[in-house]
Amino acid sequence: MPLEHYFTNNLNLKSEIKEIPYAINNIDFTFLSDNGVFAKNKIDYGSNFLVTNFLLFADKLDAKVLDVGCGYGFIGVVVSKILNIDVDFVDVNKRALHLCERNIKLNKVNGNVILSNCYEDVKNKYDYIITNPPIRAGKKIVNTILAEAKNYLNEFGELWFVIHKDQGAKSTKKYLEEWYNVEIVSKSKGFYCFRAKIC
Fold it and tell me: Within 10 Å of residue 147's Cβ, how many Cβ atoms?
């Protein structure tokens, strides 16, 4: 099966719904997954690493959060539940967004789902934009998600993202330093968790 199915809409792909359990901070979650979405069989290590670090540092009360490339909603759902805030979810994959809507309800959080290619249909500004960018969509899309986030951040807002060292973590950091102060928050198993603030 081609890798492109993570970020395109293949209407002929057979549906096989799976339940994925997850727990953090003594709170249990259940996520519905399916064929044609990223990390369909288990929570992605990079996404979990990003969420864990973000929750240690997120300190803006009543923050507005955007989960870009949300997939079935893992990052945003966990952030919404733990911090008790509303989250906007964006993806270009309709199947992923349908699952995301179900996972929002299943885990009893508040969220707004937006079908959008990157930020094309995003209207608001946010205190935090958080993303595990779709590396397999190509460097152009990844760079668009990360660089254009600055246009959707409130003053003193932060972009949080994770990239593996073998997928261009260091070169991405260098690229983004034209617009952001980029900090490596943590590293694990080759993954770099970044926090970026507009210069």
Answer: 17
